[in-house]
Design goal:
This protein has 322 residues and is mainly α. Helices cover 74% and strands 1% of the residues.
């Protein structure tokens, strides 16, 4: 039954992406090539709305199926609609970065409130608020080449599904199915881009899975960041270097490691494939570490994060001319 439901969601995600592509073509919502872009032809944007709608539909079904969860799911959906809504608006008519950030912070606060209510731990709620706000923007920053944001979300969702108990694991599987429905339109050849409506929403959804896992499992926080670590390292260190060098960090650019690799001559498919492989390793490490004590889990996560950071630094030096 679960497999059948997931297949239906994959099909729904594909149909909605197909519809979003035709809508974008009619409205001339196109990303044009440019100095701060990694693509060479005008491509429709906004396909991420399909992932958002698929997840929202699944949430509505869950509200009917599990009435006791309806209030929590309603708050979650409100946050998702805030992030996706401001992204949809920005895809149609670009908005100031500060206005988008305020909405992201509000959505992150809703997630933090849910964690506080479920755990009674204010510190955990504040931590989730900060991480959620960061992830929404990190996923937006990392959505720059074919398939990278959706594939990394798919891999991370499967990683969370592997350690979450039922029925909580279904939330991760729903997201994985929605991403799988979108991916054929975006990878290896992009017939539509995700747009801000999708990239920001995926960051929010990643934060939601993190929040859920932090409440229903005993896995340490650092270990729960493992499936998200590839994007956190690339986006986080790139952002830090831009801020330290005095650049306007909220502006579009092509300085992330994955973008430099493409400018150096590697194909989108190859770079995305490397990130998928790293994401799979990180998710496998989360599953393996779940059998250890929290302190050991944290040590594994720190070791992996250090390895990724060193890898980022070495490759950044090799690609510094791009």
């Amino acid at each position: 039954m679960i497999v059948g439901a997931m297949l239906v969601l994959v099909l729904l995600g594909s149909l909605l992406t197909w519809g979003a592509r035709h809508y974008a073509l009619r409205r001339q919502l196109l990303d044009q090539p440019g100095e701060r872009r990694s693509h060479r032809i005008a491509t429709p944007r906004g396909g991420g709305i399909a992932i958002v709608l698929t997840v929202l539909l699944a949430a509505l079904v869950a509200m009917v199926r599990f009435p006791a969860m309806a209030p929590t799911l309603a708050v979650f959906c409100a946050g998702l609609l805030l992030v996706a809504g401001i992204g949809w608006w920005d895809d149609h008519r670009p908005l100031p970065a500060l206005r988008r950030l305020v909405v992201h912070l509000l959505a992150a606060a809703l997630l933090g409130m849910l964690v506080w209510q479920a755990s009674g731990n204010l510190l955990q709620a504040v931590l989730l608020f900060l991480v959620a706000a960061a992830l929404v923007n990190f996923w937006n920053f990392m959505d720059g080449i074919n398939g990278i944001a959706a594939s990394q979300s798919l891999v991370a969702a499967l990683g969370f599904a592997a350690v979450l108990p039922l029925p909580a694991a279904l939330a991760a599987l729903v997201l994985a199915a929605a991403c799988l429905g979108f991916l054929p339109f975006n990878f290896p050849r992009a017939r539509i881009f995700m747009g801000d409506v999708g990239s920001g929403a995926l960051g929010y959804l990643m934060a939601s899975l993190l929040a859920l896992a932090s409440v229903v499992t005993d896995i340490s926080w650092l270990a729960l960041l493992l499936p998200l670590s590839v994007f956190i390292v690339d986006a986080g260190f790139t952002l830090l270097t831009r801020m330290l060098s005095g650049q306007r960090w909220m502006e579009a650019h092509t300085q992330h490691l994955y973008q430099r690799a493409v400018k150096a001559g590697l194909s989108h498919a190859r770079v995305t494939g490397v990130y998928i492989l790293l994401g799979l390793v990180a998710s496998a490490m989360l599953l393996a570490s779940a059998a250890f004590a929290p302190l050991q889990q944290s040590a594994i996560a720190v070791a992996w994060g250090t390895l990724l950071a060193c890898l980022w630094g070495v490759l950044r030096l090799r690609l510094h001319n791009y």
